[in-house]
Amino acid sequence: MVVGAGYAGLAAAHALNKAGLDFVVLEAASRPGGRIRNYLPSTGEYDVVSDSAVEVGGTFVSPSHTALLTFAADFGVPPFNTSRRVRPLLDGARVTEPADAYPWWYWGVDTESSMGSSVLHTQDGTVTFSTPQQLRSQLKGRPVFVELEAAGKVMETSIAPLSCEAADDLWPDFDGITFEGWIRQHVQHEEGRNVLRAMCRGMIAQEPAQVSFLSTAKSLKGCWSAGDDDQYRMRGGSQAPLLAATKALGASKVRLRSAVRSIRALSGAEGAAHGGRMAEEPLEEAKKKIKPRYEVSTADGGVWHARYVIATGSPPALLGISMPASLPSADAQLLQRMPMGESAKLFFFYTSAWWRAEGLSANVLATDGYTACMDHSAYDATNGGAALMCWLEGATNLAFFDAPNATKVREDVLTFLQTSLNGDKRVRAYTSHVALNWPDDKFARGAYTGFFTPGVQSQPHFWGAFARSEKMPGLFVAGADYYAGLGNGYMEGAVRSGEAAAATCVQRMAMRS
What we know:
Helix content: 25-40%
Strand content: 15-25%
Number of helices: 17
Oligomer: single chain
Radius of gyration: 23 Å
């Protein structure tokens, strides 16, 4: 039994299907994808595959995200290069464009600079640049950025000996403070502090006052991703592989609108019960009377029995499921210590990406206010797929969606964009706009991922629970939120963790046979 049809759940299902095992995926929503969702501006439809679709949820893919790229390729979905270079992506070996050498604090688009000029608004004026060298040159000597470079050297020295996955002597010290605490220790200029706060929002979609410094240190060390994180996107949108997988597996295998309410450990149960179907091993294994371990109940009254359960979903989603009473207390408590980030993308759509013809990348940053916007056009930027997008994360997210006058706030963003793009009036000639706020999604309750506040990761019981996917014999938790290795917090981590759980199930069934 697989709970959830996001990348973790469907990667597990795909692996089980290839191994010839019987399974069912139960998904609470009316669509697959979890925090991954496509939107087609020309029609206003969600959950569609189109080269004119944009991603209102998870989007970007690093060259290091090989499990995700392979999963997408299995369903005929290729990546495309966000720098819009005309180069082959998959031709025997994967083509890798390393991230440009931007300053450590930089939180904008860092693909190879073939997209036009970018903008950074500072208290001392606006800087326009097309390469990291140009950015560094224009900021050279400014006290705020001199201090940031010095802080970067301290950071680099501090995290060099840090272990990514095994607790070491540094963990308690790093986990004893927030990233905001570290910022205040090492950066005195308020503008410099704002820069690092914006960087934290870009990494974790949360304010640094909420985030353990250990998490920030791991991210900067490259524990969770490598290479250029925003080099690729998916043709047809990042939901395309999931929609294709759902269609290929079929409605009998992927059951939408089937919200799981409880997972109960069985004692001596055998076979199916209450009219439910046995989501178990193939028929020849069932004949050997292999007993199921778990009973899974859904909101519509369905009851399913399974030997193995792979539960996926955000921490709030899993907290909404009644788990076995024998679930280790550290696992139960861990989920309560993984709040979600606050993230949304505010899109403005146009008939064409007119800014490109003006030599503008639309990569806009500011050290205060709305701190990051970008060209987030679809692969096909015609037919309504051209898009300017601004990130709404952390405190910015709360301020935007809690504002009493949404129209005025939206106008403020448009003014910011127009000022940044040479005062061009075409900024306001958008055809439509959309902003899907992930904290409002009743299953996700936030994005990008669950994060850690101070004092959790350095606690051996909690880190042991986090690093252990199998919570009880045959009961696994998988997803980007719970993967300790490369890909944590990314679609890659979801795929890797789902595949790893499925591989364990396949191996054990092979041993039985």
